[in-house]
């Protein structure tokens, strides 16, 4: 089975994505990372993406779908995928669903639910590694990264106003996608306001 992971900023989606991928032996498609990696590889598609990104423009939906199709075409035989960061809008959903049907790939979506208040609390208190960009929650009390020992810093866009704008975009653009998948019985809802371990346990229990 393939999975889509949904959750507003601060829901712990990145942490749970890594765990699910390792536990279920899934290939991860994370939109931002896929774009950056492709831009560096020098292929025809990579050069196209690099030119768009360097111009400061958003990568068009048809190019994003081309990237996903390229990713799926090169997927090891028998491997399933965890999609993180796609689809984020109804337009993306329409194109994504067509592509998945074309590839004969079914999927289930997982939604990690937290309140807007909890998201703001988490985001204003989290820190990231200045070097490897690993994100650390407020519960992590050290001042240096446990992976590379670099200094932890706060993100410049983790201010209450900037966070509310991002959360509003999630509500306006991504929630309609989630509601549509809910109506089709494709959503597994998880209580994200638990410990990391409890969220993991609930996810695995409901998936199984």
Structural key phrases:
single chain, 208 residues, alpha/beta, Rossmann fold, 3-stranded antiparallel sheet, 8 helices
Instruction: Give the N-to-C terminal Cα separation.
Output: 11 Å
How many β-strand runs? 8
Integer-rounded radius of gyration: 17 Å
Provide mean pLDDT, rounded.
91
Derived structural class: alpha/beta
Strand line-up across the major sheet: 2-3-1-4-8
List the helices and strands and how they pair.
Elements: E1 2-7, H1 13-24, E2 27-30, H2 31-41, H3 44-54, H4 61-73, E3 81-84, H5 90-103, E4 107-113, H6 116-125, E5 127-129, E6 135-136, E7 152-153, H7 160-183, E8 187-191, H8 196-207
Parallel strand pairs: 1-3, 1-4, 2-3, 4-8
Antiparallel strand pairs: 5-6, 5-7
What would you say this structure looks like, in words?
There is one protein chain. This protein is of the alpha/beta class. Helices cover 51% and strands 16% of the residues. It has a domain at 2-26 and 80-114 and 174-207: P-loop containing nucleotide triphosphate hydrolases (Rossmann fold, 3-Layer(aba) Sandwich), CATH 3.40.50.300. It has a five-stranded parallel beta sheet, sandwiched between helices. A three-stranded antiparallel beta sheet has the order 6-5-7, with no helix packed on it. The longest helix has 24 residues, at 160-183.
């Amino acid at each position: 089975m393939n999975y889509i992971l949904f959750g507003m900023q601060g829901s712990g989606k990145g942490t749970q994505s890594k765990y699910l991928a390792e536990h279920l032996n899934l290939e991860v498609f994370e939109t931002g990372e896929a774009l950056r990696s492709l831009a560096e590889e020098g292929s025809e598609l990579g050069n196209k993406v690099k030119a768009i990104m360097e111009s400061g423009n958003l990568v068009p939906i048809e190019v994003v779908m081309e990237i996903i199709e390229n990713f799926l075409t090169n997927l090891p035989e028998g491997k399933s995928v965890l999609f993180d960061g796609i689809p984020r809008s109804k337009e993306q959903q329409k194109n994504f669903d067509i592509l998945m049907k074309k590839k004969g790939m079914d999927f289930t979506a997982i939604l990690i639910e937290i309140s807007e208040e909890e998201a703001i609390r988490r985001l204003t208190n989290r820190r990231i590694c200045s070097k490897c960009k690993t994100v650390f929650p407020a519960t992590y009390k050290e001042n240096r990264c446990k992976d590379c020992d670099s200094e932890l810093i706060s993100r410049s866009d983790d201010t209450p106003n900037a966070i509310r704008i991002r959360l509003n975009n999630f509500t306006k653009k991504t929630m309609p996608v989630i509601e549509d998948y809910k109506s089709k019985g494709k959503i597994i809802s998880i209580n994200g306001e638990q410990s990391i371990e409890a969220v993991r346990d609930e996810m695995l229990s409901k998936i199984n």
